[in-house]
Specification:
- It is a single chain.
- With about 270 residues, the chain is of the alpha/beta class.
- Strands 1-10-9-2-3-5-4-8 form an eight-stranded mixed β-sheet. Strands 6-7 form a two-stranded antiparallel sheet.
- It contains six helices and ten strands; from the N terminus they run E-H-E-H-E-H-E-E-E-E-E-H-E-H-E-H.
- The longest helix has 18 residues, at about 50-65.
- It has helices spanning about 10-15, 50-65, 120-130, 210-220, 235-245, 255-265, and strands at about 5, 20-25, 65-75, 130-140, 155-165, 180, 185, 190-195, 225-230, 245-250.
- The chain has one domain (about 5-265): Rossmann fold, CATH 3.40.50.150.
- It starts with a strand and ends in a 7-residue tail after the last helix.
- A hairpin with a 6-residue loop joins strand 6 (about 180) and strand 7.
């Protein structure tokens, strides 16, 4: 496998890639108002929800340009709640990383304590822009992060969307099959994936579990194809591509995280 790692804003660096040069994109953008990655211009720290969605749509229009006509986008995005008028957030005793010096204001039309519905808002925006929204996948996290909440259940899932550039697209149903817990035989993959979160001993807030990425790579590409992640983070998509014999292009805004990804993917990789 070869890895091409580009440091910078994905909206800019995507313009350097050839049109229709990537078979599939697997990515998890920064979530809205949940983390401060300490980089000017970071997506996810916008004061307005509409600006956040606009910026992500810009990225994915760039992704659509570089996707092959039969290419797919596998998009993981978590949800968030309105701030209730607070402009900062304490570190939770069960989750120190959630502490932030800023909080976006409550979006227009929403109320205090509302669940915003960010993943679906983005999915519908992309659908309006011409993407085919093929399915939603529920990522069930058995070891989910504890929450100090007393008036709602603890959230133990996120969404993963499969979108395609065209009506007809490459999808390897055989490669993506799963084992039936009832019969032990292989079956067509279902839309609820039970995958544990996995810690990573470096300075990155959220890491894609390899077990979440593998079915996407297997279903969305062939050996030797190129897979893109425009929010590369610590580089999990790259490690899975190496394992499965795919080339990978990763784009990461934060130079420190890019170095973590480079070191993690160093052995036997180009780029």
């Amino acid at each position: 496998m070869t890895l091409q790692l580009l440091v910078g804003d994905s909206r800019d660096r995507l313009q350097e890639l050839d049109e229709a040069s990537v078979q599939c994109c697997i990515t998890s953008p920064p979530y809205f108002g949940l983390r401060d990655y300490g980089v000017d211009g970071q997506i996810g720290a916008e004061p307005e929800l509409s600006s956040y969605l606009d910026h992500l749509c810009e990225v994915f229009e760039g992704v659509r340009r570089v996707l092959k006509p039969d290419g797919t986008l596998w998009l993981n995005l978590g949800d968030s709640y309105t701030s209730g008028g607070r402009t900062w957030r304490d570190a939770d005793r069960k989750n120190a990383a959630r502490g932030m010096s800023y909080r976006p204001p409550t979006p227009a039309g929403l109320k205090r304590k509302d669940l915003i519905g960010v993943p679906w808002r983005l999915a519908f925006r992309l659908q309006d822009l011409g993407w085919y929204l093929r399915t939603d996948i529920v990522w069930h996290k058995p070891n989910c992060q504890p929450e100090s909440v007393k008036d709602r259940p603890t959230r133990a899932h996120e969404f993963l969307f499969l979108l395609s550039r065209s009506e007809r697209y490459f999808y390897d149903r055989q490669g993506a099959r799963e084992t039936s817990p009832a019969t032990g035989k292989l079956r067509n993959r279902r839309t609820v994936w039970e995958v544990n979160t996995e810690p990573f001993p470096e300075a990155h807030f959220a890491v894609f579990p390899p077990a979440l990425v593998r079915p996407c790579v297997l279903a969305g590409s062939r050996p030797g194809d190129t897979v893109l992640d425009p929010f590369f983070g610590s580089g999990t998509v790259g490690t899975v591509c190496d394992e499965l014999g795919r080339d990978c292009i990763g784009i990461e805004l934060n130079a420190d995280y890019a170095e973590i990804a480079r070191n993690r993917n160093a052995d036997g990789h180009g780029g």
